Each structure stands twice: as structure tokens, then as C-alpha cells.
Amino acid sequence: MPHPPRPVQTGLAATPRRPLVTAGGSTPPRSSSQAACWRSSTPTPSACPPTTGGPSVAAHGRLARAAWYCLLAAFLLGSVALLVASPRPDIDVWYLAQHASRCIAHGCDPYSMFTPQSPEVKAGFSYLPGAALVATPFYLVLGETRYAEVAALALSAVMLAGVAPGRAGRLAGALILCVPGTLVGIEVAWNDPLLLVGLVGVAWAWRRGSSPGIVAFLIVAFTVKQYAVLLAPLVVMMFGWRRAIAAAIGSAAVILPWVLASPSAFYRTAVRLFFVWPPRPDSLTLWARLPTMVRGWLPFAAVAVLYLLLHRVLPRSPGGWLLGCGGVLATFDLLNKFSFYNEWALAAMLLIAGAACSSGAPTSAPFSRAGRNLRAGGAREGTQRTAGP
């Protein structure tokens, strides 16, 4: 049920807090018991692009290119309209993101802040510092951190259109924008698009043979959300130890200053919180159905087994990279303590993008225009695996 408006007295703005109203005109459920009642008779904007632009994007020639740009423009305009119509979503993620960006702009530590108007989590900042650092320029210019998620999704779609040539690339980018619930995720400030743009950026830089670009996008990915560390073995598998170490050093350079500023606050709000937070009945995971003795280690064991399989079958290509990222995150989501729609949507986007970029594309691409490889033999390995008689 919507909460009645009440005054909010904090450093953000002393204005009445309004209930979150989605594109369908309803308030999202706070528990699994309310989920069955959360139905909208009006299609959400995120459901419209597939029915209007999808067939045209899949075509060839000028029509497909025009449809692609129209779809991108419709997404951007719809996102802006949505954020204007829903200026204060009733969710702690948005309050924390706004306060953290404001805190950084004023030179304070977001992990030591307190946000009393946040509905649930009030102390500190629950994500890695990269999430706040990326959003801060949007907060300073536009007064809203959610524009960072809009820009990240749009940039991901544009880069995917360049990862795979022709129709496959356009489809990959279009499908990212058309995943159901995308605009709802933007409205409630889920910052998973910031991780998505880092992972897609790796594939984009790989296709262009840019080793510094790969490392830079890896740093973005590893400084936004904590569970991105699960992809570290995949980085070694795809790019070798040198670039994995370079990405680790760059990520540490971003994260460590915030850790050293207040070690206890960082540990309490960005690490310990996820272990002591009680289970939620609306979590989309099998964790609650697992025997108690295996809950702590089974998610990581499942990921380790998946890596053994990926090492043998996963193509060393930009599409293979995206497929591997989606597979690892989906496996962890299935057994993790907390897995919600935004985590599953991210995994789906990566798998969709990986499949589209792998369709009809060579299994491995040269890492540089000069013919040098990021990983010895990497450009030839995938071709040898799939070469026919």
C-alpha cells in the first residue's frame, strides 16, 4: 500500500516523500504477499520497444539503421519522462545513491554518512565506491543519479551494436533496451547498468584490439558491485594474468582510499551488511530451500564447477566473454542468499548480448590491428576449435 506523504528533513531536500508509482500506475510490492497483487492493466513503456522497433531493427539496410536510432531515441526520451514523473522513488537505493553523490561532491565519506529518510538501509553506502563516483557527475549537473543508469544502458546498447557487425550487433543492442522491466529498474535506481556497461565495454574494447580499454572497463566493472569479483577467474581465462593483475591494481587504487578513510565503516556497510542481513521471502533464489549446512559454500562451489566447464567449452571471443559473465552471475543468483529481479535481469542481458554477438561471428577476434594478441595464441585458439574439415 502507498505510504501517506510525510515531510522529509535531511540534507537532500525537505520535501514530502511520495510513493513510488511505476509506469503501470501501481506501487511495487514490499513482500511476496503483496507481489500477487502487483499487476498493471497498462503496458509499461519497457514492453513497447520490442513490438514497435524489433522487426525493423532485424531488417537490412537503411531501414534497420533508422529503426535502431529511433529505438535508442525512444528509450532515452521514455527514460527522461519517467524520471521527471517519478522524482522521489520510495526505495533506499535511490536515497543512498543521491546522498552518496552529494557527500562525495562535498568531500565527505559516503560510508560514514547517515540517511534517515531512507526506507530501510540508513547507515553508510551499500555498494563499492565506483557506483557513487560514476553517478556523481550526473548528480552535480542534473541533480539526479539515475541518469547515470540511463546513460549506462544507452552506451551499452551502442557498444553492443559495434561488437558484432551488421544485424547481429543491432539486435544485441536493441534486446538490451527491450528486456522487460528495464524502465522500472531505472525508476527505482537499481545500479546494475553500471556493471553492465563495464562488462560490455570489455567486449567492445576487445573487438577493437584495445588492451588499455579492456583494463579500463574491467576497473569500472570491479569497482561498482561487490559480486563482480566472481568474474575474476574469467578475466584470467580470457585475458591472462598480466591484464588481470593490471585490472586488480587499478580497482584497488579506486577502492582503497575509501577503505582507509574509515575501515570499520566500509566493512560494516559494504561487506558485513550482506552477511548479517536476514533472509527475505521475496528473494528469487533457492537458498532458503537448501540444507542449512550447505548454504554458505554451495553457491561458490557451483560457480567453481561452472568455471571448469567454461574453461573447456567457452569460446575466447567478445561474445564468449559476455556469455561467461552471464552464466557465472546467473549460477550465483540461483543459490545466493539475496537475488532479486535486477540481478536476474543483468544476467539475462549479458546472456542475450553474448548469444547475439556470437551468432555468425568468428569464435575469436584479433586483439590488435597490428596482429598481436592480448593472450598468446588467443586469436587462433577459437578458430582451431571450430574449424571444419
Q: Could you walk me through the main structural features you see in this protein, from its secondary elements to its overall organization?
A:
The protein is mainly alpha-helical. It has one domain (50-373). Helix content is 60%, strand content 0%. The chain is built from 17 helices and no strands. The protein has helices at residues 32-35, 48-52, 54-57, 61-85, 92-105, 129-142, 146-163, 167-177, 182-187, 192-207, 211-222, 232-261, 263-276, 298-313, 318-335, 341-358, 378-386. Helix 4 (61-85) packs antiparallel against helix 7 (146-163) and helix 11 crosses helix 12 (232-261). The longest helix has 30 residues, at 232-261.
Task: Give a quick rundown of the structure.
By secondary structure, this protein is mainly alpha-helical.
